[in-house]
Design brief:
seven-stranded parallel beta sheet, globular, binds nicotinamide-adenine-dinucleotide
């Protein structure tokens, strides 16, 4: 893998949750290319194994581990596997996350009478859908941190990176649950950075702008393979006028992992968004 920065992570053990997914498999590959031993944790064990195999085929060191970030006992077991194979954890990337249709309204705005129509209005949002999204993004960041940060307490240079989103800065229409949950991830990033500041663990977050992945493809590309109205709106609000490429997150990731480069950076949420969060639309 071609890297935008060369940093040395030899001897380090990294855990990447959601590492079977589009963005975090790229993160896992970049971290492995810097020499770290990488454990890819994902609900989809087959996909985690496949990413690990690709890393190994490329000369890196990796294992896939099937794990649900919402099940602490399963995470403890995953930690045992990681510790046995690779030693204690130095780097944790909390990448597992996502939205759910039941936490999503059909329309951007509420119009009189919508409650009676065959759509999901605000009043029809399913509490279980909302709970699913909050759990996956927030608890799914907190629980792996409880489990893997235990390894980091006596080290000088450990790093946790959470994955937030644009909607944490200001909510996106239709997705109140995901927006609130990612705002909670950003807030928790600051809280954790303060909490762990005396024990040498730096905690930061990356807030990706808009990247086409499995999670959002149905919202952004129509059946004909063309941009949806929402895609066109996103691009018109992104000063750089395009979606991001997942490789464009790697420079920020590696910079945040490298003590020499970012050793005094703690508790920040960094947008990588082509200017989306800076643009008021006027
Ligand atoms: P993705 O769907 O490709 O990857 C998410 C991965 O998480 C999947 O492999 C999935 O199997 C795994 N996962 C889901 N639930 C899990 C659970 N309970 N336990 C363990 N693993 C679980 O999505 P992505 O776009 O690569 O997203 C990665 C992260 O980036 C997510 O936190 C997402 O919210 C965030 N994000 C994505 C974008 C974007 O434009 N794609 C923008 C901002 C933030």
């Amino acid at each position: 893998m071609k890297l935008p920065l060369n940093i040395d992570l030899k001897g380090k053990t990294a855990v990447v949750t959601g590492g079977g997914g589009v963005l975090c498999s790229t993160f896992a590959k970049a971290i492995a290319a810097c020499g770290a031993k990488v454990a890819i944790l994902d609900l989809r064990e087959d996909v985690a194994n496949k990413v690990a195999e690709e890393i190994v085929a490329d000369g890196g060191i990796a294992i896939g581990v099937g794990a649900n970030v919402l099940d602490k006992a399963v995470l403890e077991n995953a930690k045992k596997i990681v510790n046995e194979k690779f030693g204690s954890c130095d780097i944790l990337i909390n990448g597992a996350g996502g939205n759910h249709p039941k936490g999503t309204t059909t329309n951007e705005y509420y119009f009189e009478g919508d409650i009676k129509k065959d759509i999901t209005s605000f009043f029809d949002l399913d509490p279980q859908g909302v709970e699913f999204v909050f759990n996956l993004n927030f608890l799914g960041t907190l629980l792996p941190t409880q489990v893997f940060a235990a390894d980091m307490l006596d080290k000088e240079d450990s790093v946790i990176i959470n994955v937030s989103s644009m909607n944490a800065f200001s909510p996106l229409t239709k997705i109140p649950a995901y927006s609130g949950a990612k705002a909670a991830v950003s807030n928790f990033t600051q809280w954790l950075a303060v909490h762990f500041s005396k024990v040498g663990i730096r905690v930061n977050a990356i807030a990706p702008g808009f990247f086409l992945t499995d999670q959002n493809r149905a919202l952004l590309i129509d059946e004909k393979g063309e941009y949806t109205e929402r895609s066109k709106k996103i691009i018109s609000q992104t000063p750089m006028g395009r979606f991001g490429e997942k490789e464009e997150l790697i420079g920020t990731l590696l910079w945040l992992l490298c003590k020499e480069a970012s050793g005094f950076v703690n508790g920040v949420v960094i947008p990588v968004d082509g200017g989306f969060s800076a643009y008021s639309g006027v």
